[in-house]
Batch of 3 targets.
Target 1
Amino acid sequence: MGRDVDDRKKRAALRKLRKAAELAEQGKGPPLSDWERQFLEEVEERIEKYGSAFADPLKGQEGEALSQLQHVKLKEIDKKARGKGKSGFGQTKGQKNGQKNGLSRRPPPRGRDISDDIEDETPVPDLPDTPPPVPQPAPPPPRPSGRPAFRVIEGGKTDKDS
């Protein structure tokens, strides 16, 4: 039993799948892996049979033919088939001639080198062999002896109130 998916969305998804497979066969980009080829075939088969390529409603919108992850993977396969590079954390448009990502384009932090302040011939004062005594904490105040006193607070609950 298939899900209720709009026919236009089914046709659009099938068209994208077939177009990606067609472009991959033309050889404009690197050849598709076995997994990618199998992915395209199985997703196309599920859309034709069930109207949607996924069953879990949490993985995509209700009226869509492809889940969110299937849609992302189809876009990656389509880019690969067209011979375009992957998007992601790689080189961007602004990076040329071996420049690195945006974080490494920053100048180095302005810090001091701790060895700059040390003079080589400064004599070190003699330190005592034993460490200074550690002060002991003060003892806690003594506790009162005997049982605590019981006090009745006026204005509390009485037997008449209950």
Target 2
Amino acid sequence: MTKLWDLQNLSITSKSSQKKTGCVLIHGFTGTPWALKSLGDRLVELGVAVQIPLLPGHGTRPEDLNHVVWTDWIGTVRESIRSLKTSCDEIFLIGLSMGGTIALLLAQESEYGGIVCLSTPIKLKPWLQPILPLIRPFLKEWKKKRDPALNGQINETGYDRYTTFSLIEFFKILRVCRRGLHRVTCPVLIVHAKDDRTVPAFNAKMIHENIASMDKEINVLENPAHMITRGKNQPDVERKVLEFIQKHSALMPKQ
């Protein structure tokens, strides 16, 4: 089946033979690399090696999410990290929404140059998780609410609904991530919109308070949105991310 977006190996090139910085950009639940392509292009312009993997079950049809579990998503990101390590001497992880959750989880296992959490959830609707297995035989999918901040100006290449099976897996990854936040010690940048209706902004505060990183920064944006890498927030988000990478990279020239 043809994938709508598959931007693996977006650019693994460098202008010189010097040591390189690599970034793995991770899209969100039911989304695609489209949401992070512009940010990836900006990083490539700086000479950063970039990969934006398409997570299993995404970019085709929602029903395909019923054939993957949360560890499959983690495994795909690990493959991109391993690929970049063959040509890069330091790796950063940048995640949007659930992609940020994946970045936090992986940072609990290994040390990275830094991670960026954009509109990242770690705790959502605790009342819903226990009832999902009970209603799954009767309710197979949930219609998504469109992000009002996009205002019809941007057509996201992603699914318009969740499947109940995949929601169960989504909540599993949140639970696993929460338990190990105290093991995150690398530099962390957290960016979240104040009036995010998909992932409430209290998640940003919870991440900031529970990670063990000595170098951590939280930024709250005024323009309401969940997909902060597109739309009105895009310029600010890209600037903050690039500044963070340049600040914490040992290989990139400082400006």
Target 3
Amino acid sequence: MSALLYPFIVLSAIGLILSLIVHTSALLGYDLGFGQAVWALHVGIFVVWLPTILAARKTTSDFKQRDFRKAALRGCPDWMRKMTYGFFAYAIVNFAIFMFSTMKHPGSNSGEPTSAVLRGFSGHWMAFYSAALSTLYSATRAKEVDASRRCQNGHLVSLLAKYCEECGSLVPQK
């Protein structure tokens, strides 16, 4: 299954980079000249999210719902996990700013997206593309991570265990 995920990992990375470019240009008030074509990033989220949901369901099926995020992202490096959480936190703040700015200054009726609208949407695009990237990447490495988790005495332990089920010794947390 993991070989099928690589094209979607690449698409997620491309979507994240492009949404960062759109967001930065919107913040700076710079028009990239793509007009309505930027909305392809909106559609692209749906392309990468179906495999993301399927991969997450498969890799988290043995875990409790409250541990979903930790289980879904267990194969990620720490920087990738933090990046995803950071983009989601930023998306919330950015959305509040977007709502405030569009209530005070409604957009034009030209059909072209304003920089405020692009800033609002691209903040969410960054969050969802980074979550897709992290979840899909993690799914390709979940078995490897699960097989390498051991207690101080070398016994294999489950992902969320704090103590070894076999000997009771402390499990080093990363």
